[in-house]
Amino acid sequence: MDFKQIVSHAKEYGFIYQSSEIYDTLAAVYDYGPNGVELKNNIKQYWWRSMVQRHENIVGIDAAIFMHPKTWKASGHVDAFNDPLIDNKDSKKRYRADQLIEEYADKLEAKAEKEIAKAARRFGDKFDREQFVTTNERVVRYLGDKDAVLKRLATAMKNSDLTDLKQQIEELEIACPESGSRNWTEVRQFNLMFSTQLGNIAGEEGKLYLRPETAQGIFVNFLNVQKTSRQKIPFGIAQIGKAFRNEIVARQFIFRMREFEQMEMQYFVRPGEEMEWYEYWKDLRLKWHKALGTPGEKLRFHDHDNLAHYANAAVDIQFEFPFGFRELEGIHSRTDFDLGSHQELSGRKMQYFDPELEKSYVPYVVETSIGCDRMFLAMLSQSLQEESVPDASGQESTRVVMKLHPAIAPIKCAILPLVKNKSELTEKATAIFNDLKFFTQCQYDEKDAIGRRYRRQDAIGTPFCITVDFDSLEDNSVTIRHRDTLAQDRVHVSKIEEVLRDKINMESLLRSF
Questions:
Q1: Which pTM value belongs to this model?
Q2: What is the dotted CATH code of the domain comprising 405-510?
Q3: Measured between alpha carbons, how far is 201 from 155 in angstroms, rounded to an integer?
């Protein structure tokens, strides 16, 4: 499905609403509806259990959103957490200069892929992609130009060379996406942190920031957690929490928002061993995504061209969203920058005594960080499908279905009496619902014809529908309909929980990678 259909479906079926809609909305802020909050909670549970429950040396915390202002000085956010801002004088629209250049590079790659796709259709099974990519004149030119653009961009970003960013936009003749105008302002830096005030303390105003990331709450608590949980290096600290960034251009639905949720784990290791653990977490995190049924071709690693000030290695796991491959998760080797900076500014030692080496040191850190909202959007994008299936009369009809992994589906099963005006059926269906609601998240639905109810459940990703019919009154059995295959099994009421448990239980998902 295209992106507009995904956004429309998300609202229609109670996944995502625009915030403050009755007041004409608040830009780039969204609310999760009844089905959305269930799916989001299930994604968070899957991440938390895979990080904390599966690893005896990873523990969790929940740090406060407000932190001492010096935290953000030490982390570099006060001085360096900026995006390059540029305005179009004619359209009055504001953009990130680096994103305009990246989008130009994406178009070059798209042109190359178009040539490759044409050749693949022409040559069929004889097509050698690698040979074509390295020998076709147009493809070589497109990809070479793309690499040159991105390399120059990375250099300019690393050096904070705003003049060169403006020159690139002019040389590449990049126009405003809305107006087509090339009448640009100069590029200037824009700090992304939201600030607020603590109030008057001894006559002085206390300035606070809404945290732009959750990681610093982990770093400042490093020693507290290590001592109270008696962890030995290597060990990790995990956290799920809200973060806030005053994005210049927040767009593409929930992909880029001003208030968002992160799932982060900081893994503390011996200096010199960070690259070994960096590779370990790259491999494990990719398996985590694939365990949900995400096809391998929709995921790829993308090494950073422009490393952050704290990193000596960084890679993104990118997902193919409807608008192209974009960052879903980051794995970073942060060195000892964070703990070292907090140690220097606070004057307190942030060191670990290693009993095996018999010495103290500031640990190095390997980070895995994934946006919960982006993961939510990835699951919507991947699972929402339109397909032809036979209807009750045997004719082909179209259904919209969300093929979510059963373990993260918002509703695991729906209990449906065949008709609503027969008290015996509704009473029995209600009794089954009242029993199953203690086992899993389920839903009772008696409105409309059974076929329409099936379609409604398909549209929100419910993997199993339990139909109570007239035979159920005689044999105390029900029909379980499978969302993906449309197969129907006759099951005794006493066996429903047993039949569903392995299919919807997150345990089997956690054991699969």
A1: 0.85
A2: 3.40.50.800
A3: 44
